[in-house]
């Protein structure tokens, strides 16, 4: 950052290392991507993309389901609460978590949970304690909904457990 170069966070960096393209404004405008604020309001009102669609939080959750239908696995990274925690912006964090609640409700309402597993978690704590701007050592909550949730819940005790659980779900062992 001091060199004036913007570095990718871990998920976009892993994506580009795998040779996969990052989604962009054209994808957002075509309804093939969602903004990190879920609604698209930031792209339209703060960044000036007048063609960016604007969703309610629950409609954005349903849109994520629609976008993900052709794929076996999707990963939606939401980083705004991390920024809010580091900036000790409790009011903004509360508002974003309420927006996330609507987004998750829309996703779960739209999803075929008989044939899909939805996992929501974080790589560290921080927004739950806005009294300082650092990561916490608090345990991170994980929500698992849909198909395979009981087995997955029993297998996840640490961040390193997610990949094996996801692989076991996507690539079941033959009997």
List its traits:
about 180 residues, mainly alpha, two-stranded antiparallel sheet, 2 strands
Q: What does this 3D model show about the protein?
A:
With 175 residues, the chain is mainly alpha-helical. It has one domain. The protein is 43% helix and 5% strand. It is built from eight helices and two strands, in the order ααααααββαα. The chain has a two-stranded antiparallel sheet. α4 crosses α6 and α5 runs antiparallel to α6. The longest helix is centred in the middle third of the chain and has 21 residues. It is globular and about 50 Å long. The mean pLDDT is 90.
C-alpha-based Rg, rounded:
17 Å
The helicity comes to 40-55%
Task: Report how far apart the termini are.
Answer: 51 Å
Helices and strands, in N-to-C order?
Answer: HHHHHHEEHH
Structural category: mainly alpha
Report on the biggest sheet.
Answer: 2 strands, antiparallel
Total beta-strand segments: 2
- Average pLDDT, rounded to a whole number, is 90
Total of DSSP H or I helical runs spanning 4+ residues = 8
* Beta-strand content bin: under 5%
Query: What general form does the structure show?
Result: globular
Low-confidence stretches: none
Widest β-sheet, arrangement of strands = 1-2
Total domains, how many?
1
Quaternary structure annotation = single chain
């Amino acid at each position: 950052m001091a060199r004036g170069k913007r570095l990718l966070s871990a998920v976009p960096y892993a994506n580009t290392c795998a040779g996969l393209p990052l989604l962009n404004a054209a994808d957002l405008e075509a309804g093939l991507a969602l903004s990190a604020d879920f609604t698209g309001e930031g792209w339209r009102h703060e960044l000036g993309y007048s063609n960016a669609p604007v969703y309610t939080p629950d409609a954005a959750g349903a849109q994520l389901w629609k976008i993900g239908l052709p794929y076996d696995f999707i990963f939606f990274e939401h980083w705004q609460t991390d920024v809010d925690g580091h900036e000790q912006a409790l009011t903004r964090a509360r508002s974003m978590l309420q927006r996330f609640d609507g987004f998750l409700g829309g996703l779960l309402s739209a999803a075929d949970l008989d044939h899909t597993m939805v996992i929501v978690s974080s790589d560290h704590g921080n927004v739950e304690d806005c009294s300082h701007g650092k990561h916490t050592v608090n345990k991170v909550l994980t929500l698992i909904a849909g198909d395979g949730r009981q087995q997955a819940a029993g297998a996840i005790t640490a961040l390193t457990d997610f990949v094996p659980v996801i692989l076991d779900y996507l690539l079941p062992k033959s009997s």
